[in-house]
Every structure is written in C-alpha cells, then in structure tokens.
Amino acid sequence: MENIKIKDEYIKLGQLLKLAGLVGSGVDAKYVINEGLVKVNDEVDTRRGKKIYPGDIVSYNGETIKVE
Q1: CA torsion, points 23, 28, 32, 38, in degrees to nearest 10?
Q2: Is the CB of residue 68 less than 8 Å from the CB of residue 16?
C-alpha cells in the first residue's frame, strides 16, 4: 500500500489517480472511474469529483493508496 500525503482538506478522485501515477491523464482517470474500476474504501465509486479525505483508501488495477 502506498501512502499519498495531501496538503488540502481533500483531493478529488480523478486528481488522486493522476497524482499517484495510476493513470496518465484526466481523460484516463475519467474512463477508469466511469467503468467502475476504482474502489473507494472497498466500494466502487463512479464519480470523478468524489472528495477523498485523509484516511480514505483507494484501489485501482491492483494498486492501493491510503490518503494522509
């Protein structure tokens, strides 16, 4: 599991996937999120603008990220 530290109160799901290097662009993020391939706290979430807060765990393509 990789930890990603954010400086703001939250980060949007699409931005987090780009920051973590799991997708190459916002378009890629939109696609994988819309396809239901991303889980937030073990539940599929299809909202690219979903707010991710410290303590949340995001999973995609065998990678897991914990937001700090």
Answers
A1: 30
A2: no
